[in-house]
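Quick one: co-fold with FE2/S2 (inorganic) cluster.
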Amino acid sequence: MVTTSIKQMVRSNVGVIDRAIYSDPDIYAQELEQVFGRSWLYVAHTSQLSKPNDFMANYMGEDPVLVTKDAKGKLHTFLNMCRHRGNRICRADFGNAPSFMCTYHGWTFSTDGKLVGVPGYKEAYFEELDRTQWGLVEARTDSYKGLVFANWDKEAPGLLEFLGDAVWYLDIWLDRRENRTEVLGGMHRWVMPFNWKFGVDNFGGDTYHTMVSHGSMSLAGFSQGQRQPISTDKSRFQVAIGNGHCFIGGVDPELQKQPQGSTFNKETAQYIRDINEEQTARLGKVRGAHAMGVGSLFPNFSWIAAPFVRNWHPRGISKTEMWSWCIVDKDAPQEIKNAMRVELTQRFGPSASMEQDDANNWMGSTETSRSLTGKKYPLNMQMGLGRQWTSEIHPAKALNIPWSDTNWLHFYEHWAKMMDAPSWSQIQLDPIKHRQ
Ligand code: FES
Ligand SMILES: [Fe+2]
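Sure, here it is.
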């Protein structure tokens, strides 16, 4: 347990952050416990669990989990761990099965978590093993418009409270079309040597890096999105939503004729325009003017241009496993879905262009957070400090021009709050302005 207050390391009022938060193993142990052990974490999409006994494997922090739909249609999230000697009960990534037999000694569990089979129950256990006490370890599970989340902490607030005003923004993606969304195809998974927070904060608030880090893409003509010059124009902004959730891509609907977002290919950009009428009819004029931009839900789920989404799974203080895939409108034409899949592969993934630009930077930042001299010098997050504003039309806690560290500081403030509080009763969530 870390004894210094984490808040002293995240000095958001002056925009300075201690680098130990990226390199101290004790801080990492504490964040697994107090951030990943107590937050609602994205674990699956309902389209992956459409039939009874469908299952999907994922991680909550470093804990492997299985998300299941039981025979009666109820969603569960279980620790993927046999209660006998702790082996995994399932090695498949997804599928459909009425039960899971552990490959070590054969204990078998149903999709609602009960221990239903024990080899030698009569002969070796003399029927004395209380099977009702040895079912799978279960997390709380809930979903919001297709996104399934789970939480280990019984004291945590409900999912909607945790997401707060993020749902107002998520609807722009999840509810813009009548039949909502579905997962497209499989996913890319790979491990890189950087701290997980560098990825989350980049997606949640780093417009600044695009011109430099991804500048070569613009020069080569691969992307229109990276060429925007830095300006003080307030018609586009980034949004510190509340509860650590962040979003880049807010617009003033009076000034924008078409929804703006980080779409790159002509086909997908045109598709966003084509569905604008339906989106506006469903969500109103303000949210009709928005595309999903880039963002991060606290603590480790991000999207870019929605459909490209990812989990940042911590694998030690200096290692992150990325899971990257598409969540698309079910009603989108097949050729658009295909274009999105191709775009994902080209831009975000182990061999993709933008990914390589980003990952090297995060590796560099992680390395110097560990080095003897480097770690003595704090990080600078002073861009746009004190320039935030609020808006009648946006429920977010604070807005700033897109070139600002406001979102980063917002994420780290919430992270520090969770790291310092011994229980949920001492964590105050931001007030929700927009009730559905
Ligand atoms: S570890 Fe699973 S049956 Fe023994
Ligand atoms: Fe990037």
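If it helps, The chain is about 25% helix and 25% strand.
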